[in-house]
Structures are given as C-alpha cells and as structure tokens.
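Design request, tokens follow.
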C-alpha cells in the first residue's frame, strides 16, 4: 500500500538530478528471532552486529523516489539495477565510489541518463566527473539524517523485511508531505 502511495507522489516528479546511496541501520536483538523459512529478512552481520541497509534514490530536493533493502553486509551495487531502472533521458545520476562499476554506468547510459560517479582510485580509465555537481550529494545525506529521526527506522525492531520497508516508506511519505505542507 505504501509503495503505491510513493508511486503516486513521484509520478508528478520531473527532475534532472537523482542521487543514490545507502545507510546502515542496526537491528534490535529481537528483530533477528523470526523464522527464516524461504524468506530473506534483509539481516546481515557486520562489525556492529546485525544490520540492514536502506538504499534510496532521491531527487534534487532530497526527497525519496525509490527505496530498497538489503542485508547489512551486501554491496551497494547489487540493488542498483532495481533502483536505477526508471531514469529519464537527460537525467544526471550522482553516486559515490561504491557505484563505480562499468555495469552500473552502462545501465544509466542505456536509459539516456548521465552518470556522475566518483571514480575509484584504482580505475585505469577515469570517466568524466564534475566535482561541482558531486557536491549536491549532501542532499541525500540530509535525507538519511531526517529519516533516522523516526525511531522505528533508526533502529530496526521489525522481524520481517516487508514490515520494516513499510515503516521506511511511511516515514518517506511523511517527509514528502512535510516538504509540501502549507505554513500559512
């Protein structure tokens, strides 16, 4: 249900800049007690214990467009195919070095968009990169800061990944509404 609401909100979106990144969220010890069965609960071990990664694509105002979850130890590039599959032509995608892969760059360019991804230091061929545009990525970091003001998102208490994703979507809808609420 929340996913349909986010889709309705973003259908009116028409922007030229999108940013992708992820943040890790610690899971409460009771969140790990769910029966696994054949489901993926997006819980993974990292140095801090059990964690879940929230992956987000935001627009030029720092408002979420696409959301996804993975286990805490998963690489950011694994879910990039799902999050970046609805780009418009002439869109600029800002991302950090975690997304610097030829496969991701081709995915972006095949849709008519332009990747502005910080190249890794060990890359032999350095693609075109604008540091001035890259500075705008602070908007996605601000989004994560606002998102973690919601207690149910800052720490994962939900056993099922679908329930936790619903809470992240609900918090994202609230951030969209807050951006457009009238102050008069």
């Amino acid at each position: 249900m929340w996913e349909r609401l986010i889709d309705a909100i973003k259908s009116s979106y028409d922007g030229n800049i999108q940013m992708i990144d992820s943040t890790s969220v610690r899971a409460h010890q009771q969140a790990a007690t769910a029966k696994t069965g054949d489901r993926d609960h997006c819980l993974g071990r990292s140095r801090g214990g059990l964690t879940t990664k929230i992956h987000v694509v935001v627009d030029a105002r720092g408002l979420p467009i696409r959301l996804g979850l993975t286990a805490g130890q998963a690489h950011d590039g694994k879910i990039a195919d799902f999050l970046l599959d609805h780009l418009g032509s002439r869109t600029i995608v800002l991302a950090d070095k975690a997304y610097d892969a030829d496969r991701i760059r081709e995915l972006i360019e095949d849709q008519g968009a332009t990747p502005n991804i910080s190249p890794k230091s060990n890359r032999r061929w350095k693609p075109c990169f604008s540091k001035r545009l890259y500075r705008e990525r602070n908007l996605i970091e601000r989004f994560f800061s606002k998102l973690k003001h919601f207690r149910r998102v800052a720490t994962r208490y939900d056993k099922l990944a679908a329930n936790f994703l619903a809470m992240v979507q609900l918090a994202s809808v609230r951030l969209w509404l807050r951006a457009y609420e009238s102050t008069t």
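Comment from the thread starter after seeing the answer: thanks! The two ends are 30 Å apart (CA to CA).
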